[in-house]
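Hey, can you fold this?
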Amino acid sequence: MGLVAGSLPPSRLLWQRVGFAFLLLCTLLIVVPIIALLMKIIISGAPAISWEFLSQPPSQAGKAGGIFPAIVGTLYLMVGTVVFSLPVGVLAAVYLAEYAGQNWVTRLINLAIVNLAGVPSIVYGLFGLGVFVLTFGFGMSLLAASLTLACQALAVVITASREALLAVPQEYREASLALAATKWQTVRHAVLPQALPGIVTGAVLAMSRAAGETAPILVVGAAFFLPALPHSPFDQFMALPYHLYTVAAHIPGVPKQTMWGVALVLVAVVLSFNSVAILLRWRARRRKIG
């Protein structure tokens, strides 16, 4: 008979407590630095936040004025990345999870997807420069940047969506097929609604990564100083991560609170999108339970 937790020998109970303490320590080593960094960003960046800072274009090469064009450009970039990556990623995940057989071709595709997640971001930037900017003729534009980041986000979206689809119990598929539904009807009406929370998670990760990338957009469309807003997908744009990089590394005399203010706005934008996605995922789970 197995021993219950209360009847463990003292030596095993000691090792159990040591193991729990070690896990707690590992968790604190991850959480505490993140909380400290967020507090530093909030404390140092809050004095720079004002209505003028959020609603005015930059001036004096970023030393004065606001960051409104960078905020709008970042929002456009996040939305564009999801628009281009989510449909392709979800459909690819549906094929891999529901239609593709377990053979060497499928294993090769899965290996390629895993490798894509580890490719340096600057490589995606050079790919976007060669394909979207030069070959397709989109130029240095918001469209080229969105497509480049969408290619980078595909691995995350496909992986998250595929795992969400595989997590749906097989009974849902069997019940749907038993009611004379086709394979596609089963996937569309029985599987995808159950996998929606996981798919939303993939979209959130894609948006968050798009909001913080600097290297890819540096070579495909982000502008160093552009007070005007983009009027079409073929215009250049400003973005918060690139603006933060330039004011911190290449513009002397920029007040430090301005740099921290840009960082605080970037974190707030990402957290706002994540909050909306978390709300959608929560509603989808409630609907699934109900």
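Oh, and this one too while you're at it.
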Amino acid sequence: MAKGAKKVLISGYIGFGNFGDEAIFSSLVSYLKAKGVEVSALSSNKKYTEKEYSIKAYNYKCPFSILKAVMSCDILFSGGGSLLQNKTSNKSLYYYLSIINLAKIFRKKVVIFAQGFEGISGNKQIKFVQKTLKKCDLITVRDEVSKKILEDLEIKSTLVCDPVYSLNLPEYNPCGYVGIQLRKYNLMHKDFLNNLADAVLVRFGDKKIKIIPFEESNDREICLEFKKLLKEKKDDVEADVVNDTSIQNIIKEFSTLEYLVAMRFHACILGSAFNIKTTPVVYDNKVLNLSKRENLTYIDCSREDDIKTKIKDIEKASFKNKPIFNWNIFDNIIQQKEIR
């Protein structure tokens, strides 16, 4: 690293083994390194992050480590993904806001990186988000809905697409395989898995089915349960759960899919990047908004839905032109020039 290189600290959902967040993080690290920046990150798995990305990592829970990391950087990148939300709890929202405020106390520049905003509730929490974001030097959002939400809070932002679109993807080589991507969700309808299994076997029972976890802690159990259901209903069905959930292998698996039924937002984004015929399974607003934007027939996993008919419509699924992520937006702040 060149002497005097700028130092960037990344704060996000890092080290938890979630494909979407790790893929975004990977793309950001690659961009920053290409700019000659010294990169560090707050991570839940310090050893893994340091080994995988060849950067300095700090324990995301340790107050002393957080303070040291912030004091050592020139610029904080917060994101991407949906960090600033309190759908699960206020704890996560306050954590990420506190990191931003700590950086501003020490007069660091702060970039909100390609975030999605759709799940902030409570007047106190909204005001805290509003007050914090107005201190930031550059705010970028990944979709029009997020931009409108911030406009309503009188916060200026720049629209980009999701950074996963910037990944260096292999050639798309569909082999007739069917991808099923599932995650745990507490409001899932009691008959959802059973009905989905029936629909998948009616439409794809003669094809090879790949069931793909995106995050070990939330996905593998339900993926194994779905495989068991398929086998119970049709013992000769060719269905397997993907074991290697590294970024590289998941991308490789997706490059072979002809069809995709997916819950996670970044599974749908990856389907879009390859233009796979996709039926999203909606469990939150970001997946719903993507489905509507792309005019895709979607399944609501929290309701009694006509899954067989909706999967049948998968043949009509087609994504618009693949967006191109504009990295140039961040060049000025990396070079420490003023942002207009």
